[in-house]
Amino acid sequence: MNITRRHLLLLLPAAGVAWKYILAGTPEAAPNYKLSEHWWGMLIDLPKCIGCGNCVRACQAENDVPDGYYRTWVERYHVSDYDIENPQVDSPDGGKSGFTPVKEAGGKNFFVPKLCNHCADSPCTQVCPVGATFVSPDGVVLVDKEYCLGCRYCVQACPYGCRFINPRTNTAEKCTLCYHRITKGLTTACCESCPTGARQLADLKNPADPIHEFLKTHSVHVLKPSMATHAKVFYNEMDGSVR
Amino acid sequence: MTGIDGFMYPNEVELQWSVLIVLYPFLTGLVAGAFILASLERVFQVQAVKPTYRLALLTALSFLLVSPLPLQLHLGHPERSYEMYLTPHRTSAMAMFGFVYLWYLMAVLVLEIWLDYRREIVLLAQSSAGWKRTMYRVLTLGSTNISERALAIDEKTGWLITVIGIPSAFLLHGYVGFIFGSVKANPWWSTPLMPVVFIFSAMVSGIALVMLLYMLMMWARRQTIDMECVDTVARYLFYTFLIDFSLEMLDLIHRIYEADDSFRSLDFMVHTKLYFSHIVVQIALGTVAPITLLALTQVVKMSAVLRKRTYVTAGCLTLLGIFAMRWNVVIGGQLFSKSFLGYTTYKMGLVTREGLLMATVLTVLPFAILWVLVKVLPPWPAKESHPLPSVTMAD
Amino acid sequence: MNVFKDAGHLFRLAGIFVAGLLLFLVIRHSVIPKSFGQYGHYRGSAISEVAVRPVKFSGHQSCEACHADVLDKKKDGKHAHVNCEACHGPLAMHADDPGSVKPGKLDTAILCARCHEANAAKPKWFPQVASAEHSSGLPCDTCHQPHNPAMGVSGAK
Hints:
The complex is a heterotrimer of chains A (about 240), B (about 400) and C (about 160). By secondary structure, chain A is of the alpha+beta class. Helices cover about 20% and strands about 20% of the residues of chain A. Chain A has 2 domains: about 35-120 and about 175-235, 2-Layer Sandwich (Alpha-Beta Plaits), CATH 3.30.70.20; about 125-175, Alpha-Beta Plaits, CATH 3.30.70.20. Chain A has helices spanning about 15-20, 55-65, 125, 155, 180, 190-195, 210-215, and strands spanning about 40-45, 70-80, 90, 110-115, 135, 140-145, 165, 170-175, 200-205, 220, 235. Chain B is mainly alpha-helical and about 400 residues long. Chain B has one domain (about 5-380). Chain B contains 15 helices and 2 strands. Chain B has helices at about 20-40, 55-65, 70-75, 85, 95-125, 130-140, 150-180, 195-220, 225-260, 265-270, 275-300, 305-330, 330-335, 355-375, 380-385; strands at about 5, 340-345. The radius of gyration of chain B is 22 Å and the shape is globular. Chain C folds into 3 domains: about 1-50, no CATH class; about 55-105, no CATH class; about 105-155, no CATH class. Helix content of chain C is about 45%, strand content about 0%. Chain C contains 9 helices and no strands. Chain C has helices at about 1-5, 10-30, 45-50, 60-65, 70-75, 85-90, 90-95, 110-115, 130-135. The interface between A and C is large, with 73 and 54 residues.
């Protein structure tokens, strides 16, 4: 495929750095990226999530996710009164086409986007029999699809249900935090397409990253803390009913 | 969506581990159990069960040869399974499989069978003809020394291997229990009791299988069943079953009492989706019934005929129950959502790679292999394989 | 010694085991992937294999390089922080070669409803309407300019 560079001269400097590597069809890895300088995570600001499903659609488009499987998805919660141990939850097609409009449901209602938590103490990595899934030095849990046997042990070991077996490759698959984008200075596809900024990529090793200030000033949670997975996806104002 | 009740995380709807993964612990459990029975005679000097010794070893070998097959058929990339030998991940219980399997196959089972049969192999190498002669000659590994000293060395070595073999058998099946028991994400599986329950239920199933096979083979060859042998085997089955039942009850009572965050969801599942396989098949038919029958044979004086029939019934129910236990652990552990808010359904294929037909073939295959092994390495002394027609009491 | 004569078969067996072990070690050394163990218990080259995937979403900075006029319209309105591809979809191919790929025209009747259709689970502060009552089925861009959607802003219909 022919790549034209005629627009290079018109580019703003900021775009210029990322532009060189955005060559759809002939991808290259960014040579300036140092693994040891990054420790990736994500911030999900729940009061901002409107359940539009943009993130689910964007992820599917960016990563060729097969239908019926989800690298990310959105759940809708309905909590009636004080019974937070029994919420009603639904996620029609992972929230890919949004949610059916409900005018007034009573109780408390909200959306929760979910994805791989890129656990620093990842149980899926622990159980892989051959070393096909791993925590990269920059904190992203990845799958080596050339090495994966498809034994499905990692899928069983994930407490969050974020892994699946891709029926095309018969290997384990999950959110890669758009590793191919973040190593080139771009943000993830889900964060790029989120209209309200509910999802924000975070580099915990970067002192200038806004997450540090955010973590200091907000009430932040991770999913299933009792599992002690050292998850790196942080949820702002997460209700106690969230599973 | 069809087949779902309540809410499941979207990726949880489809089950990951199929009936083949139910079959695998069932098959290796039979291996471990049969071997333990054999070791009763070899190490613990329980002379009464000697008639079943060689049969138990051959049974263990037949099932061990088949047990990697369900795993291979289940893998997304079976052609990459050698990677477990290349780069086993030390934190993964599953990575142990390749080495534990190979160790148990080569260093324990094959070695012990070879040492026990070596005298017959050498004699058969000399007395048979054609391709059989070649086969036996290969099996002798070129050595025809069956002097008393050589056989005495074999005996001692065999004893040592059995002693090593007992913990190896526990390891072969115990690590499978650990594979499930160490998954903190799944409360149906995650318990330190899991490897112990697996081992004891393995022993139960293995002992029951060998008992049934012995009785079947004696009947097929029109020979008298050694009642003292069968009574002893049945007694060991009974005691082991009591321990197994106690362990499973302990797990159940503990769960009900503590009633942690998973309990409601699991309890509902056992009463609905797993009712038939758990309450009816595993507990009632597969545990309580055979234990009761075996207990009866211990306390009530029964004729040999009645005892034999009771043993056969109890043995068959036991195997059914232990299979159901594997089913309930593997399939049951995937029917409920980790959100504790919903359930899915297992849709077992019929003629697919991981379907019912394949599971049936894999269950029958070890018996076919055993048939061949019994022909090549007869478990009973030569003079018994050509019995003179004799008048026997009505069996 | 006599022992060796009577235990000869065992030594032969041991020899076979040792030979097998050596063979395994040799095979293992030649077959194991070269980059395995570089960073941990995995193939080091897997990291770059994941990183070298095609990018489908260009990122808003590259859109703004050419479409500065739209950026001007957007930056003072409510959609200032809504990235271009959130509505227009992945357009890295267009950004790479604008002539070859023309972004499709969007259907506001479907697109806008995804965010703005009233739903009890949406936060109360977020602008949402029941479209049937709000516009009686008319497409949203009848009255609203998507790049700066407030009514009364210059450029709105």
